[in-house]
Write a structure and sequence with these properties.
The structure holds two protein chains of two kinds. Chain A is an all-beta fold. Helices cover 0% and strands 49% of the residues of chain A. Classes of the chains: A mainly beta, B mainly beta.
Chain lengths: 117, 110
């Protein structure tokens, strides 16, 4: 499985500011995703980070609020813009590598715990 | 009705007990079923992966899928305190997108 690291691991930010979260993978991966995990809620997919093109956002998430970059096959960033307390959450990077026995397994990074005051 | 329902618990069992964790779902297109384990302040860790109906065993863990009932289960035998974590079920159809349950928090008491 791929080894995924995220920076920062946690942060406390003031409302109205922006935070950029980095995701680094130790090997080239096919797909990279960004998820949000709010207390008591299911993991929710924010977007798929596409290498060399604009990210694909899920319903309820927009590029102006969550701009994403993916300059290569091992790195991606997620920015949480103009933050409000409702953005307080854990943000998780996830990747899918080459299929194993025809199955694409999906792995998660350690997460970034964000608190907005 | 949510696509995936999972009892959030918390579930507390004595060490050595057999644990049963379950999810129900409504989307008949789901074909791939996963269980993730998430320790406190860590990312989810892929535990088991099953395609379509049937059973899969890996050590003390057994995953079951019953597509006719839209019901999946994870059994943990001889549970250990180190199994204390939140267990997330996840599933997908043919695409990459996973749909998760809310997770069940398990505590195994020594």
């Amino acid at each position: 499985s791929a080894v995924i690291s995220q920076k920062p691991s946690r942060d406390i930010c003031q409302r109205g500011t922006s935070l950029t979260i980095q995701c680094q993978v130790d090997s080239q991966v096919t797909m990279m995703f960004w998820y949000r995990q709010q207390p008591g809620q299911s993991l929710t997919l924010i977007a798929t980070a596409n290498q060399g093109s604009e990210a694909t956002y899920e319903s309820g998430f927009v590029i102006d609020k969550f701009p994403i970059s993916r300059p290569n096959l091992t790195f991606s960033t997620l920015t949480v813009s103009n933050m409000s307390p409702e953005d307080s959450s854990i943000y998780l990077c996830s990747v899918t590598g080459q299929p194993q026995r025809g199955i694409y397994e999906q792995y998660f990074g350690p997460g970034t715990r964000l608190t907005v005051t | 009705q949510k696509e995936v329902e999972q009892d959030p618990g918390p579930l507390s069992v004595p060490e050595g007990a057999i644990v049963s964790l379950n999810c129900t779902y409504s989307n008949s297109a789901f074909q791939y079923f996963m269980w993730y384990r998430q320790y406190s302040r860590k990312g989810p860790e892929l535990l088991m992966y099953t395609y379509s109906s049937g059973n899969k065993e890996d050590g003390r863990f057994t995953a079951q899928v019953d597509k006719s009932s839209k019901y999946i289960s994870l059994f943990i035998r001889d549970s250990q305190p180190s199994d204390s974590a939140t267990y997330l079920c996840a599933m997908r159809a043919g695409s990459y997108q996973l749909t998760f349950g809310k997770g069940t928090k398990l505590s195994v008491i020594p």
